[in-house]
Amino acid sequence: MNDSTLVQLGLLIPLLALVGIQLTARHANLREAVSIIAGTALFAVVASMYGPVIEGKEIAVHWLDVLPGMALAFRIEPLGLLFALVASFLWIVTTLYAIGYMRGHGEENQTRFFSLFALSIASVMGIAFAENLFTLFVFYELLTLCTYPLVTHAGTDKARRGGRVYLSVLLGTSIGFFLLAIIATWLLAGTLSFKPGGVFAPGTSAALLSVLLVLYVFGVGKAAIMPFHRWLPAAMVAPTPVSALLHAVAVVKAGVFVLLKVCLMIFGLETLRSIPATEWLLYLAGVSILLASIIALRQQNLKKRLAYSTVSQLGYITLGALLATSAGATGSALHIVMHAFGKITLFFCAGAILVAAHKTEIGELRGIGRQMPVTMTAFLVASLCIIGIPPTGGTWSKWYLMLGTFEAQQWILMALLMASSLLSIAYLLPIPLRAFFGGNSANGFDSEPSLLAEQGEAVAIREAPLPSLIALGITAIGCIYLLLYPDVFYLLIKAGI
Q: What would the DSSP string read from start to end of 236-251?
């Protein structure tokens, strides 16, 4: 099998899964087996491209020319492969989790859910493999459209309102800013193809490039930079597996991946450093990090707290890209991976708590660690990953981001990152600590287990369904594994910067 065939398979496997899911709709076990098998096959295909990409081999596929210089084409480069590896692996795990959650929670329209999930992964592969901005934009918009029905899955008025915010912000920013930036890039550079070091000729007006950079930063609404972040908390009306898809597997990761790729392969680090707008966009990202952390601290609904935490953590990735240093870009790319594993684990735990204990508010979780020890241990590990401290992989990405601020001599931003890390300790760590060491909440769990706990007797274990528990265990172990063995991603990042 040649390398170009692998690219085609990477794009087609999720679409074949969509067909298989529809054909097996009446047989739940077969339907879900199709998703698991497709996810495993996709990950195997993506992983098989790792060696050739590290060796610098060109892997490309050309589908069709739309206009002169504007083609639907794909090329595998290191950062795109990194994104595809994370997304394809987490598709397997999220599918496993969703089997337990969707059945345990009695969700309707499960075939539609798994079908749209497969289509979303197809869109992600298109974004990851895109050779140029035109191809990327096509799949970027497709990702928005196919995740919208997932956000509104419940069909309630609240879900539809959240879906409207989701769609209006993402389509509004992409059409109003992102598309305009792509057209301007074509006119200025004469190409839309990604190129290491950037595509703009020396002497291109710094003022024009500043405007262009602003359009890209605000146009990639999936990166959730303030003030275009409202869609993310609004989308929390979706089922927890969808929240995992939005925060870790596809949507927000597509946003920050696009921004990082634009910074590295449309502008280039040297050009980025010379643009006047870079400085104030850096501080905008910094403000977004700090404000979102403060808002997260005030949220009592668990999923909303995690949503604002995501807004803050995406700011880290944006800031790292805009620092225009090698360490900053490395930290930004690493944080895509580390945040994916940490945040998906946190959402898995939130969903497990909902299914097993029917709790959604943080104040209701005191003492729940006695009944859900596996879930809350995973929550603790994932919290440490998001904070960025051992024994988790988040340590590496936060370290490189701090090093990036040092290289750029951005002392205020360094202090801001430190302050945000302290805030993340404040809004994440108390949850698992009170779950294990706090007394039972005022709202309480079942009276009998609570009474037994007060008497020092055993408390009944009441975890989520086994598939969900296995999934959150895998991602929690992944958070620790990434501290010990980050090289598989680090080597890709160094090859792509």
A: GGS-HHHHHIIIIISH
